[in-house]
Amino acid sequence: MNVALAVLADYASVDSLNKMTLVGIFGVWNPPSLPFNVPIMYVAARFGFEPAETNSTKKIRISLHDLGGRELLNVGPMDLQVSSSGTTTQNVEANVMVRINDLVINKAGMHKWQLLVDNDLKAIITMMVNPPEI
């Protein structure tokens, strides 16, 4: 299993052909003040699975941590069905996107989104929150 893509975005969707659309990929916030409310954002990832991993269920968990390592948000675990499209000799890609509503950011500094598959850390997405300008 590998992580082909892991991003934060203003919007994400997947169509019927499993094609992901991402709009407004970001990694830095410049809030006017703190605390700061993010009304809507997405955490999106594309996982690649080996043929031996097809026809299985993986548990996905996404969490947000501050600079000190304190967990601020936890989403999941969610079931991800890894299924092949007829052949078991090819790698399988699976898209995951999670809509985050009303995220409150209290402190400036580096934040980390952790993506875990079956409780194994597979990717970290960094999110820098700059201090407000005075």
Note down, in words, how this protein is organized.
It is built from no helices and 9 strands. It has one domain (2-129): Immunoglobulin-like, CATH 2.60.40.2560. The strands form 2 sheets. Strands 3-9-8-5-6 form a 5-stranded mixed beta sheet, with no helix packed on it. A 4-stranded antiparallel beta sheet has the order 2-1-4-7, with no helix packed on it. The mean pLDDT is 91. β8 and β9 form a beta hairpin. It has strands at 2-14, 20-26, 28-29, 36-49, 56-65, 71-82, 92-105, 109-117, 120-129. The protein has 134 residues and is mostly beta strands. It is elongated and about 55 Å long. The termini are far apart. The relative contact order is 0.30.
Could you name the key traits of this structure?
elongated, 134 residues, 9 strands, Immunoglobulin-like, 5-stranded mixed β-sheet, mainly beta
Question: Gist?
Answer:
The protein is an all-beta fold and 134 residues long. The protein contains no helices and nine strands.
Q: What proportion strand?
A: over 45%
Give the N-to-C terminal Cα separation: 46 Å
Give a short account of the largest sheet. Answer: 5 strands, mixed
User: Tell me, what's the shape?
Assistant: elongated
Strand order of the largest sheet: 3-9-8-5-6
Number of helices: 0
CATH fold-type name: Immunoglobulin-like
Give the overall average pLDDT: 91
How many distinct folded domains? 1
Question: What oligomeric state is this?
Answer: single chain
Helix content: under 10%
Query: What top-tier CATH class fits best?
Result: Mainly Beta
CATH architectural type: Sandwich
Radius of gyration: 16 Å
Give the helices and strands as they follow along the chain: EEEEEEEEE
